Amino acid sequence: MDIVAWLLDSDPSIRWQVLRDLLDAPETEVTRERERVAVEGFGAQLLALQDPGGYWDNDEYGENQSRKSVLWSLALLRRLGAVPADPTVHTAVQSVHESVIWKYWDNLPYFHGEVEPCINGGVLTQSAYFGMIGAGSERIIARLLSEQLPDGGWNCEAPDSSKVSSFDTTLCVLEGLLEHERAVGNVPAALAESRKRGEEYLLKRSCFKRLSTGAVAEGRYLNFSFPPYWFYDVLRALDYFRDAGGAFDPRLEPAVAALLAKRSMDGRWVSGITWPGDTYLDVDAPEGEASRWNTLRALRVLRWATALGPM
């Protein structure tokens, strides 16, 4: 089958990324398609669900594993590629900036973050992507730098119940540091070094193995589900390293092999087990069915890892 044609027969949020990441389409064509994210399809639907007070589901994070909150709605808008400068997107984010607070943590403004590094990594990602860098970002970065563990990563359970890093938390933080660095340009050497140390934590473990035994650290790391929320998986990690740029690191070869092992006979990837929680939108196929999101992400990772040309 023509996999690229199948990918293009979809939501604008997928189409613009196919044009950019698989076809090397002209920038004007990519931009034109990306601008549709905020006005039709998943992006427009999600934006329309925000209430007048700036919240989604009247919640900043999501009690009882709800994925309808501000944090997960903004996270999804970013992964869909909603253009921050779009008037509707800008108004939505400005409303969050002005009105949303962390009610269970000192009533801090949303973009100042709270206490868990995985959540703060997500908020830092969003503040950088949506153009909300400021005092809140500085607060989050200071916390993250102080919370980095000796092995190079982060863990939401540290120091109370764990002194070693978590794959999940580490990747959430790395995504935030990368987006911040991209938004501001040059960052202090300590911050750049912090991100490199976090990357080394994952690279030393081939992105999914125990350093001590070489065994798969958690079976769920081989479950690919979109959107990923805070959950770690091999595809998400590989897509992070692709997005960070630079040459392919040979230590990622086992992760790429694990990715290829999940490819179906028809050349596509299927949806994994859906992560728990109530959602507004089902943006991917049901479990076990061909997944456009997984296929798009896997193909662009493989293209980066093997230096293939346009598809």
List its salient traits.
mainly alpha, Terpenoid_cyclase/PrenylTrfase, 1% strand, two-stranded antiparallel ribbon, 311 residues, single chain, Squalene cyclase
Can you walk me through this structure?
The radius of gyration is 19 Å and the shape is globular. The mean pLDDT is 95. The protein has 311 residues and is mostly helical. The two termini are 13 Å apart. The protein has a two-stranded antiparallel sheet with strand order 1-2. The protein has 13 helices and 2 strands; from the N terminus they run ααααααββααααααα.
Helical fraction: 40-55%
Percent range for β-strand residues? under 5%
**Globular, elongated, flat, extended or rod-shaped: what is the shape?**
globular
C-alpha end-to-end distance: 13 Å
InterPro entries: Terpenoid_cyclase/PrenylTrfase (IPR008930)
Protein name: Squalene cyclase
Organism: Paeniglutamicibacter terrestris
